[in-house]
Amino acid sequence: MVVSVHQLDDGAWLSVNDSREVPVSQLWLLARHGFCGCELADFLAEGFVEVGVDWPDIEARIAGQCVKCGASSVTDWLTVGRVNRENGDFRSVVPSSVHVPERRTRLATPE
Ligand SMILES: [Zn+2]
């Protein structure tokens, strides 16, 4: 199954299969992150920087700031939604539940 993922409008939207699915300006709760010094960061998303597919997860790195401490940066890869294996439907995650950004270490491992 082919999934096309893009960011649109200078990072204001993440589109999956040509449908605008995930907007920025949402508050994400981040745990075990390297984003700032807060144990739980209240991260206000301001723009999608990179988007990718780690089948069946749709992932993105998002620029924004922690509204608790004011730190401003770009997150590691966050799972923003998931594609249904059966019918290809996209379902976004709930940003206000706790999310753990991940570095893609496996891609950096030499063969
Ligand atoms: Zn913070």
Automatic annotation (TrEMBL):
InterPro entries: DUF8134. Pfam families: DUF8134. Residues 1-106 form the DUF8134 domain. It comes from the Archaea. This is DUF8134 domain-containing protein. It comes from Halorussus caseinilyticus.
